[in-house]
Please model this.
Amino acid sequence: MRKITALWNFTLLASLLVSTSVALAAVRSQNLQGRTFAPQLNAPPQAAQAKNWKSRDEYDAFTAMANEKDPNKKISLAEAFLQKYPNSDFKDGAYVAEMQTYQQLNQPDKAVEAGHKAVESNPDNLDALRFLSFVFPFVYKADDPEAAAKLSRAESDAKHALELLQKLQKPAGVSDDQFNQAMKGLRAVFNGTVGFVALQRKEYAAAITSYKAAAEDNPSDWYAFYRMGLAYLYSNPPDHDHGIWYIARAVDLAQAAKDPNAAEFEKYLKEVYVNHHGNEDGLKDVLTQAASSVNPPEGFKVAAMEAPKPTGNRLVDAFNTMTYPLKLGGEMAQKQWEGLKGQPLELGGIVDSVEKGSEPGTYLVRIDILDSSKAAPGVYDIEVKDSKQPNVKNLAAGDVVRFKGTVDSYTATPNVMVTVVGQITEPDPLPDKPPVKEKPKPAPTRTRPARRTTQ
Model:
């Protein structure tokens, strides 16, 4: 699954979520209705609803914390409040104050931790649910040992928040338009998180459904369009038409917003488009159309590439013959794969890179066969999983190799790459030492001419 550079720019975060402020103000208005203090003798004031201030001191401590402007002092006051009033009905508010302050201090881990504590204290706290849902796709790591549990928690929180929104009533003094716009902003965040969880679980149809809902509520969310495009491309069979359209729209929106990920989005779009179409012809037209419309017009199609012509290079022609049907997708790709999987394969190429595999003692040898792959570091055509030859680690980029093995799997986006379980057969023997890296030549020293003194 493709990664997006995590953005912990809280100014950006605040700007993306500002449209939901009216809704959250409405929540707070409803939650705090009737909880004003009436000075009756010396008795501590009481809330009119379920939440109660247990003493004047508790109220004063919370108020002092809420009104503090210095972020470090605010956190200290929040911690002091939580320690002194561990059973307070308002401790979720103290955790939210910490969460928001850690945002301000650009300490994401602590902000997320405080947000979780707020939800544990009050599962209906929309301030915390909104923040946690928005940042989750940026902090989630697929290799986290607790990844599955974190996905479940994020999904549960987001779905619960969507249920809360259905019950939320418009407060007095807020126009219908303001309230509806705020609701759309919140729904887009929560549906986006539900879609992200489905995408990580490879539940692509469910991911598309959630992202469509998110994009409908917020047609300016480039992340929703980008991830929806991925869901279409990773579907079986892949839907290149919708996938390319939505990623093209994400590129336009991200570029307009000067998002740091815009260049990565555009690079990926080009790779997918060329892999499917054969070249970049027509891509600019797709970008122009997607910039002005949320969804593709009826009948929109990206023409598939023509069958590759023989090159005279036996290895290249064999690879093209094997992979061309896989690029087309649909029934043709499925039939081709049914005939390929588990079959022996022996080819050769040039090493792109060698990395340790996820399983102990295994190595992944990435091999370029096509000229386009040789010209792009990090793009490769074959990945050989090798567990019997520890010396493959000594191969270097640019080495000419041959391999044999069994076809195990393939990916179709952004370019077709076939995984083979096998071994390197040439060179034989493999290098017994890693390549010697040339030491950089020292920069030439510059001597300045002696300054002439004037008498």
Summary: The mean pLDDT is 85. The two ends are 75 Å apart (CA to CA).
